[in-house]
Each structure stands twice: as structure tokens, then as C-alpha cells.
Design a protein that fits this description.
Length: 494
């Protein structure tokens, strides 16, 4: 690799300032600390960087020893997408559970407590909330990350979530503009396409972003989606029509525009990582999210040099890069002034309170109460990359505490129902599913269990789109740890 810029000149510093890279390890790498001195203004934390809150606090202190006005970003939506609680499951329910309760004050309180915890750890920028309207229940990547299918509901809870989080001095980043809810492809793998007319987009997808802007969201994240009604040629992240003409000029948004992860195949597989980054900044993006996968110094230097080269050859106007860097520094300055999470009274039980309120319990048959050990059959779908495979989910751990002697096993694919029956040993079954409506094999497994054992209890921890069935059906509206606790309590209560 040839490094074009060797000194800490203004152009190089601006190129570094727009990057929000990740890194490996649970302490601050030397290369990151060096680059902070050269102009890097942001870093991103992922699950691989988190062990405990004390460890994260020590890590952010190491980083701020090099640069006090540093943006430390994290992808912490709560619910299914958690990084702070990646090893245990989230202490807060996700958006869909909060939307099911539909109490904006509760949503505001939950995000405020999340912000307090993030601030205490030295994290001041959260790539959340999702403002996507869940228009397509078969969406493979949004689902319970959305507050719901009603535009008005999503708008009011997006605003409440932004207000609660930012009251702690942690900047919110509302996503995924102009709306990722009506897709059937995961942009981690390919470019999703939304083929609806502009009137539908304006009426359905944009109001939650308008609400976030009115609530003062400090950042908005772009989506790697093709929306032909807005731009037939470029996905949102690379589209000047979407980022500048629509978001900046028409909606009047003046905060930071951040890209979704640039390693995602929707961008890197189509345009190439370095060229994609240049196109994104030229289109109006101010900050480049990178590091979920590529988290090495070479990636950062390659992107820095690509931006410098693009300015020098005239592909990227120097003033556009300077404006982007200035917006990053402005947000960093706001978080420095707004620090205040330590002064907020903790509400450690608010997440469980919200999860309990979100439950929907349907009794579709008669069965004796559960007061003896059960067999938990957890039907495991393939997880999307946003959720990841590190975080535990389900009701087994809590049922083992409430009903000592309970055992559990996971099943997936064809024959899962028969395999679960073979493991029973005469016990009642608690079948745990996640988005039954999206997985025919999962529905078939429940058919098998319910035919043999009509007294089976069913717990749905994804979108509750399938009709309730089982002697008792419990919809948790998400798979966060607290959702599992609340569901297990309901199982035992009958």
C-alpha cells in the first residue's frame, strides 16, 4: 500500500476525522491511539470489545487520554441488538416490545436509563434507534428492531427514544434513512430494493425521521437500500438525491449523517469499500461507519488515503470533506458539553418493568399449571448479522431457576419437532420460537409437538405474526434477556 499523506496536514486530518473505525481487543490498541493524535475523531465499539462495564469504562478512559473530545460509538439498540450486554442478553426490551406497550413515557424512561449506563461507561454516541416502519413482516433484518407497523406509532416512539437517550448527553443516531422496513433482503448480503411510489414513501417511511429531527436527533444513519422512486441509480448511502436533496434540503436536517457499515456487501460487494466511502462522502455523508468486520489499521489508512486521493484528483470536493469533518467535530463538542449521565438517578428495573408490560398471553386450551420441571425446546433460526450469534436468548435459564430440574435443548431444521419429542422424558414442553411465520420448518415442528402434546406451552420471541396456539401462548415481542425473564414468569403463572 502506498501512503499518499505522510504529515498531519489539514486534508489528512479531515480524512481521518470522518472515519468511525472499530478495532480488535478489549484495550486500546497502539495504532488507534496514534491515529487519534493525527486527527481521528471517532472510534466504534462492537461486541468483541466488551467484557464488563468496568472494562469498557477503562477502555474509553484509555482512548480519551489521547483525545478528550472523542466520539465513542456503539451499536446498542437494546433488545435483540445489544453490544453492552452482548454476553448476557439485554437488560432492556427492544423497540417492538416498547411499541406493543405504546407508552412513550416508558420508552423515554428506558432509553434514558440506557443512556445513563452508556454515559457511565464513557460511550457518548449510540447508533440507535431504528425508525424503520415494519411494513414487511417477512423482513429478514428489521423485525423486532422496529417499534411496529404503524407509521404514527413508530414516529412517536422514535421521538421519545431520542429524547430519553440524549437527556443523558449521549447522541442518538436515528436509522436507517430513508427507511429499511419494507425490504426482503438483508443489506449485509446484497442491495435491498423498495419498489413503492414516492407518495407511499413520504406518507409511510419519512414521518418517523421527521419526528426524530423535531426531537433533536444529533445523527441520522443512511440505509444501503435502492429506492427507485427517490434515486433509480444509487442506494441511499451513496445517493446525493437522498442524503443532500431530501434529508438536508427538503427535511431541513443539519446534524451528522452517518453511513451504515460500509463493509456490508450492499456497498463493498458492488462499489468496493474505498470507492464506496468516497461516493458516500460526496453524496453528503459526514461519517463513515466501518469496523464491524474489517478492524485493522490498514483499513483505516486505506480509507484515509482514498479520501485524500479523491480530493486531489477532483472526484471529491475539498470543501465537502471539510464540511463533513466539521460536523463530526461539532457533534463531539456537543457530547463534551452535554456529559451528565452520572447525575441521573438509576432505574435498574425499568427494563424488566417494560418487558412485563409488553407480554401478550393467550390461553387457547386447558392445561394444568406448571409447577414441576419442564423440557424447554428452543427452535433456533439462523440469526442475522446485526443480531449476531454471541448473545444468549430464550426462557430456559429463568425456568431452570423457577422450576429446578428443568432441562433444555435447541433444535433447528427439518425434523426439529420429532427430535424435540424424543428428548421429552415425559415432561411438559415449553416450545420457544422466534419468527415462526418466517420459518416453515419451525411451524412444522410446532405442528408435530402440538399433535402429540396439546398441553405444550408456546413462547414466541420474535414478531408474533403467526396465530397463537398451544395450551398457553406467550408473545414477548423480542428476545432480550428481560423478555425471557418476563415470559418465564408468565409460563409458571399459567
Amino acid at each position: 500500500m502506498t501512503t499518499l499523506a505522510t504529515g498531519a496536514d489539514t486534508l489528512t486530518r479531515d480524512a481521518l476525522a470522518v472515519l468511525q473505525p472499530g478495532f480488535a481487543g478489549t484495550t486500546a490498541p497502539d495504532w488507534v491511539r496514534r491515529r487519534l493524535g493525527e486527527g481521528l475523531a471517532s472510534v466504534a465499539l462492537f461486541g468483541r470489545n466488551v467484557v464488563t462495564e468496568d472494562q469498557v469504562t477503562a477502555l474509553t478512559a484509555q482512548l480519551r487520554a489521547e483525545r478528550d473530545d472523542l466520539l465513542v460509538a456503539i451499536d446498542e439498540e437494546s433488545g435483540d441488538v445489544t453490544r453492552l450486554d452482548v454476553r448476557t442478553g439485554s437488560s432492556f426490551p427492544g423497540n417492538h416490545a416498547l411499541g406493543a406497550v405504546d407508552d412513550p413515557d416508558l420508552t423515554r424512561a428506558v432509553s434514558r436509563e440506557l443512556g445513563r449506563r452508556l454515559s457511565a461507561c464513557g460511550v457518548n454516541f449510540d447508533w440507535a434507534p431504528s425508525a424503520d416502519v415494519n411494513a414487511n413482516p417477512d423482513n429478514p433484518v428489521i423485525g423486532v428492531r422496529s417499534f411496529g407497523a404503524s407509521t404514527a406509532l413508530v414516529a412517536r416512539h422514535t421521538a421519545a427514544w431520542v429524547e430519553g437517550l440524549q437527556s443523558t448527553g449521549v447522541a442518538a443516531c436515528t436509522k436507517h434513512f430513508p427507511g429499511h422496513g419494507d425490504t426482503n433482503v438483508d443489506s449485509h448480503h446484497a442491495v435491498p430494493r423498495i419498489d413503492v411510489d414516492a407518495d407511499t414513501l413520504y406518507a409511510r417511511e419519512l414521518p418517523p425521521f421527521r419526528a426524530a429531527i423535531a426531537a433533536g436527533t444529533r445523527a441520522i444513519m443512511s440505509a444501503h437500500i435502492l429506492v427507485p422512486a427517490l434515486d433509480p441509480d444509487r442506494p441511499g448511502t451513496l445517493s446525493r438525491r437522498i442524503l443532500t436533496d431530501l434529508l438536508r434540503d427538503e427535511l431541513g436536517y443539519q446534524g451528522l449523517i452517518v453511513t451504515d457499515g460500509m463493509e456490508m456487501r450492499a456497498i463493498s460487494g458492488t462499489y468496493g469499500l474505498e470507492h464506496g466511502v468516497v461516493l458516500a462522502v460526496a453524496a453528503g455523508a459526514d461519517a463513515i461507519c466501518v469496523g464491524g468486520g474489517l478492524c485493522d489499521e490498514g483499513t483505516v489508512l486505506g480509507l484515509r488515503d482514498a479520501l485524500v486521493a479523491a480530493v486531489r484528483c477532483g472526484e471529491l470536493p475539498e470543501e465537502r470533506l471539510a464540511d463533513a469533518a466539521a460536523r463530526v467535530r461539532k457533534l463531539a463538542a456537543w457530547t463534551t458539553r452535554a456529559r451528565g449521565g452520572a447525575d441521573i438517578e438509576p432505574q435498574p428495573e425499568i427494563g424488566l418493568v417494560a418487558a412485563r408490560r409488553a407480554l401478550r398471553v393467550t390461553r387457547t386450551g386447558t392445561a394444568a399449571p406448571l409447577n414441576t420441571p419442564v423440557h424447554v425446546a428452543q427452535f433456533e433460526p439462523e440469526r442475522n448479522i446485526a443480531v449476531g450469534d454471541q448473545t444468549p436468548w430464550g426462557v430456559a435459564a429463568e425456568l431452570k431457576r423457577l422450576l429446578p430440574g428443568t432441562d433444555a435443548a435447541s433444535f433447528s431444521g427439518d425434523g426439529a419437532g420429532e427430535a424435540a419429542l424424543a428428548a421429552l422424558q415425559g415432561r411438559r414442553i415449553v416450545a420457544v420460537v422466534r419468527d415462526e411465520h418466517r420459518h416453515p420448518w419451525m411451524g412444522a415442528a410446532l405442528d408435530t409437538l402440538l399433535t402429540a402434546r396439546p398441553d405444550t406451552v408456546v413462547v414466541e420471541m420474535g414478531l408474533p405474526q403467526a396465530a397463537p396456539r398451544g395450551a398457553l401462548h406467550i408473545a414477548a415481542y423480542g428476545a432480550a434477556r428481560v423478555c425471557g425473564v418476563a415470559a418465564a414468569e408468565a409460563v409458571v403463572a399459567g
